[in-house]
What we know:
Elements: E1 2-3, E2 14-20, E3 23-29, E4 36-39, H1 45-58, H2 62-78, H3 92-112, H4 119-141, H5 150-161, H6 168-187
Antiparallel strand pairs: 1-4, 2-3, 3-4
Helix pairs in contact: 1-2, 1-3, 1-4, 1-6, 2-4, 4-5
Amino acid sequence: MIVRLFETKAITSAAIFFDHSRFLLIKRFDKCTTNRLEFKPNMLSTPHLLVGAAIVHSIPEPSIALPAAFLSHFVLDATPHWDGSPQAPFSKKVIGGVVVDYLFGAVLIFLITRGNPRQELILLGAFLATLPDFIMAFSRHVQTPLIKLPFVTQFNKYHSRIQTNVRFAQGVLASFAASIAALVFLVR
């Protein structure tokens, strides 16, 4: 979704990125083009967590299951989804909602897999399915030499570019469908 805030010619190229785990605000100044503010939010955490857990639960080989759980993040982000699209600065209510979303998914997986001998691997798979959002948030808010590595920059650009945000009803339906499908695999 692109919101045009103003249309003027820019004389320099620069990019300012802001990410708070779930939300990404990109302001691009492109030479000889109009300035646009792009808002590309990420999918809610619960579907990511559930799909990552379901993958690890369903694939017995951790060397295949764990990378697949990580890669599932990008598949889900590329599907149409909705996450509320709040804008910075984030209120305590918005931050609380993000935390509740993550904790809900994590606790649900913990309860469903209680007694499963692979519970730790399944929880690790759930975390790995959300790791790209943590990488992006860390690189935006923590000043370290690691964030200047070309790989991290390219990773974040790719992660931002694949987002497909849609209206509430369609997006929540997609998130709900992904969550239900993952739950089916988790409880069998």
